[in-house]
Each structure stands twice: as C-alpha cells, then as structure tokens.
Amino acid sequence: PIPHPNPMEGGGDNEESAPKRKSHACDTCGKAFRDVYHLKRHRLSHTDERPFQCPVCQQRFKRKDRMAAHVRSHQGHVHKPYACGHCGKSFSRPDHLNSHVRQVHSTERPFKCQRCEA
Description:
The structure is a single chain. By secondary structure, the chain is of the alpha+beta class. It folds into 2 domains: about 1-15 and about 20-75, 2-Layer Sandwich (Double Stranded RNA Binding Domain), CATH 3.30.160; about 80-110, Double Stranded RNA Binding Domain, CATH 3.30.160. It has helices spanning about 35-45, 65-75, 95-105, and strands spanning about 25, 30-35, 50-55, 60, 80-85, 90. A two-stranded antiparallel sheet has the order 1-2. It has a two-stranded antiparallel sheet with strand order 3-4. A two-stranded antiparallel sheet has the order 5-6. The model is unreliable at about 10-15 (pLDDT under 50).
C-alpha cells in the first residue's frame, strides 16, 4: 500500500491502480471510503474544528491544502477561470461560483418561515 500523508493536510490522491472496495465506513453518517486516510479526512466534516489559520486574514480551515490555496488568493496569483455571468466576479473553483450565484443572484429561497410560510 502507498503511505498517505496526514489527512488534515489534504492531498493524498495517490492510490494504487487496482480498484479497492470501500470498506472503511464513517461511524457518523455511514459514507464509505477505500482507505483509512480518506475516512479520517472525511471525519473532519462532522466537526467544527478548523486548526489551520490564514496568516493574512485569520480565516480558519479544516484542511491545510485549502488554507494554502486561500493564502495564495491574497497574493493575486490565483487562476480564476470561473466567471459569474451576472456580475463578472471570478472564482478559482466551480463550486464557489455556484454558491455565489445561489447566494447573490438567485431568488430561490429553499427554506420557509414555519410561522408565516414566507
């Protein structure tokens, strides 16, 4: 087996070429993973722990690789190929663009007030 780095540091996408069964299940939600590394990294999603802090703006992250990518955004060298069709703001990841469009430009309101249904 290929040794994996610390799951909180991100990375770890190197896997053996032979397919593996997803035999490592999360005790909290049941989601299964091929190896312990990915299971440990997933477990962070169930906690509020954010041990990695941006030295520029103090924003905190669960994973070191996500914090490092964020720090690069302060340096202005981040490639942002995903542009919003409404306002032109650009993002480095498609999921960030999708979140922006839903939160800023969408009239969709998936949650209703339980008292007045508004």
